[in-house]
Amino acid sequence: VAQSYSKQDRENKKQWWDLSMSSRGIAKDVAKVGIMQRLHYDDLSGHILRTEDDWVHICLPMRYVPNAMITTPLGWNDPRKKEGELIFPSLFTEEKVSYLERKLSVDAEGQLQQNPVKESGGKFKEEYIREVDAPEGNLIASVRAWDAGGTETGDPTACCKMEKRQVGNRIRYYIVEAVDRQCSVDERDAWIKRSAASDGAETVVSLPRDPGAAGVSQVEYWRNMLAGYQVFAASTSGSKDVRSNPVASAMSLGDVLWKKNDSNGHAIMQLIRFPKAEHDDIHDAIADAYNYLE
């Protein structure tokens, strides 16, 4: 699911279809069958339906929608008649489907109803996302910002490594990595320490400083753990929405780019859905990384 939010991943699949699959079996007039759960309005199924007109489209939403499909050349159509009727109620009961609808939120239109819609309205819009093979220009500074969870079942720990670079006469910011992980306190701290060693001493480690004495004590512990590295304590006070306004603005202007990475889809999905995503830890890490470099 997360990969469907990576424009590069979608383009790769469409290119594979258009350039490789288009010639397969054409000499023998073979029939092609594609079976897919819809995940994004611009996924492979959406691409095929928009660009090729010789397909028979069988669409079976979880809840029956009149006229979701037209009768096939063989005379078959969805046998359900009552709007909202479940497709397989003995397996997917009303209770289970209602739970999935709440859990999937906006994704339910795609994964359950097979009719994904383009998300809009949030400040991180999909058209702002630009993925590149590698950062360009001269490195000015780099930071890895952390949003530190500490439980195996609650909010995950997330981090964002970001670079500030001079590209010609323009300053650009590159998201090199943005990931999250469910982990215990010990696993989290081990991950922070490994990442600092991998990034090198020139990359600042930005860690959250919660209000009060406990926050000060936690930062002091991290400073001792990361002796030899640059550690910055980032304030976590104030609205998350306000903290991410600067990076959202820069991204809309094309000044924040993403280095191509398999984990981008998950991070982009969370960012686009903010503030309605189930978790916002990657969002917070990206905002803190940009605010430090800016």
Compact description:
The chain has helices spanning 7-19, 44-51, 94-104, 108-111, 185-199, 213-225, 240-243, 245-252, 264-273, 281-293; strands spanning 131-132, 138-147, 157-167, 170-181, 203-209, 231-235, 256-259.
Biggest sheet details: 7 strands, mixed
**Spatial order of the strands in the main sheet?**
1-7-4-3-2-5-6
Coarse morphology: globular
The helix-and-strand class reads alpha/beta
How much of the residues is beta strand, in percent?
A: 15-25%
Radius of gyration: 23 Å
Percent of residues in helical segments?
25-40%
Order of helices and strands: HHHHEEEEHEHEHHEHH
End-to-end Cα distance, whole Å, is: 32 Å
Uncertain segments: none
Keyword list:
globular, 10 helices, alpha/beta, 34% helix, 294 residues, 17% strand, 7-stranded mixed β-sheet, 7 strands
Structure in words:
The protein has 294 residues and is an alpha/beta fold. The protein has ten helices and seven strands. It has helices at 7-19, 44-51, 94-104, 108-111, 185-199, 213-225, 240-243, 245-252, 264-273, 281-293, and strands at residues 131-132, 138-147, 157-167, 170-181, 203-209, 231-235, 256-259. A seven-stranded mixed β-sheet has the order 1-7-4-3-2-5-6. Helix 8 (245-252) crosses helix 10 (281-293). The two termini are 32 Å apart. The model has no long low-confidence stretch (mean pLDDT 90).
Which helices and strands occur, and which strands form pairs?
Blueprint: H1 7-19, H2 44-51, H3 94-104, H4 108-111, E1 131-132, E2 138-147, E3 157-167, E4 170-181, H5 185-199, E5 203-209, H6 213-225, E6 231-235, H7 240-243, H8 245-252, E7 256-259, H9 264-273, H10 281-293
Parallel strand pairs: 1-7, 2-5, 4-7, 5-6
Antiparallel strand pairs: 2-3, 3-4
